[in-house]
From TrEMBL:
The protein's name: Phosphodiester glycosidase family protein
Signal peptide stretch: 1-16
Statement: the UniProt record of this protein carries the keyword Hydrolase: yes
Native source organism of the sequence: Luteolibacter luteus
Annotated ranges, domain Phosphodiester glycosidase: 71-235
Length: 241
């Protein structure tokens, strides 16, 4: 299976994660798509949510500028929002809540230094007190198994966040795939080179999809989003989180 994938690891600063580039056969008729992922260990880096406060009069013009301002090692676009720029569901950015919780989709959260992803119906919004939270979805993989009933017809740019259920995490950009195709492919052994995903969450896709990371040389690698985004995830050293 691994022979199907080309992997290239690019070095990043000490205590930072890794940039991987590899192929996944998730395009139309199984054609390969080049996936870019940033792999990190939650013991060394953590997730912060940055909220831009709408679509007009944003503090930063794009994902890359947000990442630089935050001192991030990597960044990816966040959750869905209305045409007017209001978040769909609840967002908590550094303890500040915007929007209202929804009982659909999924929740990405960070509380007391621990990150996790849960289906929204099973997450207790009243009992938990996360410093960072983002509602997005759908979940593509839960407990290592592909979720049933995902869309199998629309090929779009996709943004994902993945974990092995322990310390290994990744954010990833896929240039063209269906949700069902990604879910089924990512459950195959070796499909995701760094680890076997236990949970995979789809972030806002399509023209919002973007991925930024900082290389060891200080140069930026940026797969730029097409449209403005309301919020994003930045990956920062734990002493900044």
């Amino acid at each position: 299976m691994r022979s199907l994938f080309l992997s290239l690891v690019l070095a990043l600063p000490a205590l930072a994660g890794e940039h991987q580039r590899f192929l996944l056969p998730v395009g139309p008729a199984g054609r390969p798509s080049t996936v870019h992922a940033y792999l990190f260990n939650s013991g060394r880096e953590t997730i912060r949510i940055v909220d831009q406060g709408g679509l007009s009069h944003q503090a930063q013009p794009d994902l890359g500028a947000v990442a630089l301002e935050a001192g991030a090692n990597a960044a990816i676009n966040g959750g869905p929002f209305t045409p007017e720029g209001e978040p769909i569901g609840l967002t908590i950015a550094d303890g500040r809540a915007v929007g209202s919780p929804l009982n659909t989709g999924a929740v990405l959260w960070v509380e007391n230094g621990k990150a996790g992803m849960s289906p929204a119906p099973s997450y207790d919004f009243k009992a938990n007190h996360p410093s960072q939270l983002l509602q997005a979805g759908p979940l593509l993989i839960v407990e290592g198994a592909a979720v049933e009933g995902l869309d199998a017809s629309r090929y779009h740019r996709r943004s994902l966040i993945l974990t092995d259920g322990a310390d290994l995490w990744a954010i990833a950009y896929v240039p063209g795939a269906t949700l069902e195709g990604l879910a089924k492919t990512l459950t195959k052994p070796g499909a995701f080179p760094a680890f076997r995903p236990k949970t995979v969450l789809a972030l806002d896709g399509g023209s919002s999809s973007g991925l930024w990371l900082r290389r060891e040389s200080g140069q930026q690698f940026y797969l730029r989003e097409i449209s403005k985004i309301r919020n994003c995830l930045v990956i920062v050293p734990r002493n900044q989180g």
